[in-house]
Amino acid sequence: MEVVMVTSGFEKPPWIFKGSAVYQIHSVRVDSVRPFIPKEFKVVQNFGYTMGGFFLANYEESPFGAFDELVIIAAIVKPDRSSRAWAAKVLVNSDEARDHGRKVFGLPSQVANFIKKSKVISPQSKAEGFLNINGLGFSKLPKNYKDTQIREIKEEGATNSWNLNIKTKAPNLELNRFSINPRIKLSLTSLSGLTEYNPHLLEYTCQIETRVRVIGTSKISEQFAPRNEECEFSEHQNSSADMKNLMIETLENSKPLIAVEFNSMKMTVDSPTLVSKC
Questions:
Q1: Are 136 and 107 in contact (CB under 8 A)?
Q2: Which of 28, 151, 246, 278 sits between 20 and 30 A of 256, alpha carbons compared?
Q3: What's CA 112's distance to the chain center, in Å?
Q4: What pLDDT digit, counting tens, does each position of 19-28 carry?
Q5: Rounded to whole angstroms, how far apart are CA atoms 71 and 52?
Q6: Percent of the chain that is helix, strand, coil (3-state, to 5)
C-alpha cells in the first residue's frame, strides 16, 4: 500500500493533548456493528464477537484549549495485513476540535454537551452497622463515581438528539495510596476517513505517555431526547435510528471486559497518512 502524508491548514503537527481518560473495552457482536464498518474491511472476530468500546477523555491542554471527547470504537478491523481500531462516532465539546477531526482525520465528529458530576456512595448495610457498633464488624470504604451525561447538539438537517450517560467507578483514594500506578508508553493506531468530510482512507497513531490503573467498568445507558417535530427526510431518520442502535449494541448491550484509567496523560498525534492501494 502506498502511504502519503496528509496536510492541513491547522496548527502544524505534532498535536499534543494533556489530561486524563477512561478506556473501556467491550465484547461486541459483529452483526450488530457491521453496518457501521466499510464493507470492504474484514472484522477481526472470534465466534462472532469483536472488540469495541469507548475512549472518554478530558483534555486540560490541547491546540484547541480544554475540551472533552468521547470516541466510540465499533470494532477491530483488518483492511490489509494489520489490525486497527475503527471509530464509528466521535463527540467533542469544541467546534475547533470537531473541525480538526473532520478535515484532517476524516472522523465522524459532532459537537456535544458534557455534564460531569461526582458522587460518593457508602456501601455500609444495616447488618454491618450493627456489628460495627458492637466492635465485631468492619466498615467498607465508600465508592466514588463520576457520572458523565453527553448530549449531541443537533446540527442542520439532524432529526434527533440523544443522551448518553456513563457512570464511571473510580478507584478508592485510600486504597490508591498503597497501589502502584506505573507510567507507561503505548501506541494506539486507528483507521479513519471514508466520510463526507474526507473520502480517503487514513491511518493515524496516538503516542501516549501516562500513569495507568485498572478501574471498575462503567455503567452505560442511552436514551433519545423527545422529538419536537416530524422529520422532513426519511434518510436522516434512518441514520439517527442506526446511530441509536450503534450506541445500544456497542456500549449498553455488549459485555465490558476491562476498563483502565489514564492519569497525567500526554498524547502526541502526528498527521495521518493517506493509505491507498498500489
A1: no
A2: 151
A3: 13
A4: 999 999 999 9
A5: 11
A6: 20, 50, 30
